């Protein structure tokens, strides 16, 4: 009973921490948006005050993401501590990460995918044909763009690291990059575990395909322009027309990638459970 009580308490604390992070992030964006809406020809706040507030919102964004990640981690640990239930798909998902090997696989895959996502979604920008210093930008330097755009797109943070490379952090893009990359890493580790458990199960291959679809669509979540360029190159359409048309489908890419990457682990877990039951049924006393 003690383990069960600890598991319940850990889950509750994880939910509280995660909710605090999510609610803080939403409130920060809403309040900042209200303060940066132009009233006539003037902003609600003066520019110096706005920059200070922008730094605060960026700090809240990172803190809220860390809080949410900590809460989810606690919930995951609580599920690992629960008594084994051979019918629960969650048990097979959490059991996979009882080995540090798969945690390492998840982290490496998430970081690798995050870097790839960052270049496609214009978080990392490398322009060999443009010299930032010739445009009057000090190298290296950082800059904050406090205004004005829809909630989640401001404030922006830019860091010019070299004459041809900069990092552009848009809060919404950053959040989506972390979510999609983490889910891709999670799915990669789980699929590897399922593959190692039974290389002959056909369902594992199908689920890996589903996960890859979510990963591919996730590349375009933060960058509809990249999606437009990609499809225009495939279909041979004009770049300007296809980009403007497909930019409106950003919500579709979000709606497609994240749910698929969330559902995929349960499909993998089902194949692991089937394999587990088959092995147990094959063993004779």
Give a description of the structure.
- It is globular, with a radius of gyration of 22 Å.
- It starts with a helix and ends with a helix.
- A hairpin with a 4-residue loop joins strand 3 and strand 4.
- It is built from nine helices and four strands, in the order H-H-H-H-E-E-E-E-H-H-H-H-H.
- Helix 3 crosses helix 9, helix 6 packs antiparallel against helix 9 and helix 7 packs across helix 8.
- With 285 residues, the chain is α+β, with helices and mostly antiparallel strands.
- A four-stranded antiparallel sheet has the order 1-4-3-2.
- Helix content is 69%, strand content 6%.
Number of DSSP E strands: 4
Strand ordering within the main sheet: 1-4-3-2
Helix-strand pattern: HHHHEEEEHHHHH
Query: Separation of termini?
Result: 31 Å
How does the overall form come out from the CA principal axes?
A: globular
Number of helices: 9
Which structural class fits the helix and strand makeup? Answer: alpha+beta
Q: How helix-rich are the residues, as a percent range?
A: 55-70%
Beta strand % = 5-15%
What are the low-pLDDT stretches, counting only 5+ consecutive residues below 50? 222-229, 237-248
Can you summarize the main beta sheet?
4 strands, antiparallel
Radius of gyration: 22 Å
Mean pLDDT, as a whole number? Answer: 76
């Amino acid at each position: 009973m003690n383990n069960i009580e600890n598991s319940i308490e850990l889950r509750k604390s994880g939910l509280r921490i995660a909710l605090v992070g999510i609610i803080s992030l939403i409130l920060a964006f809403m309040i900042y948006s209200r303060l940066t809406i132009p009233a006539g020809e003037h902003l609600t706040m003066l520019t110096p005050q706005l920059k200070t507030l922008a730094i605060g919102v960026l700090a809240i964004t990172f803190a809220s993401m860390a809080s949410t990640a900590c809460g989810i981690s606690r919930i995951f640990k609580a599920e690992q501590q629960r008594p084994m239930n051979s019918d629960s798909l969650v048990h097979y998902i959490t059991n996979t990460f009882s080995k540090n090997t798969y945690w390492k696989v998840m982290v490496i895959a998430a970081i690798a995918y995050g870097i790839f996502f960052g270049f496609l979604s214009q978080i990392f920008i490398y322009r060999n044909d443009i010299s930032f210093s010739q445009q009057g930008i000090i190298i290296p330097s950082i800059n904050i763009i406090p205004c004005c755009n829809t909630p989640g797109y401001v404030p922006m943070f830019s860091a010019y690291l070299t004459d041809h490379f900069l990092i552009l952090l848009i809060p919404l893009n950053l959040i989506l990059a972390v979510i999609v990359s983490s889910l891709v890493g999670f799915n990669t580790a789980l699929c590897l575990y399922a593959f190692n458990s039974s290389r002959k199960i056909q369902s594992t291959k199908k689920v890996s395909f589903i996960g890859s679809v979510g990963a591919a669509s996730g590349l375009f979540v933060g960058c509809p322009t990249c999606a437009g360029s990609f499809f225009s190159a495939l279909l041979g359409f004009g770049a300007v027309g296809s980009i403007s048309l497909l930019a409106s489908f950003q919500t579709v890419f979000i709606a497609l990638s994240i749910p698929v990457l969330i559902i995929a682990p349960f499909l993998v877990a089902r194949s692991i459970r089937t394999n587990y039951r088959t092995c147990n049924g094959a063993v004779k006393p």
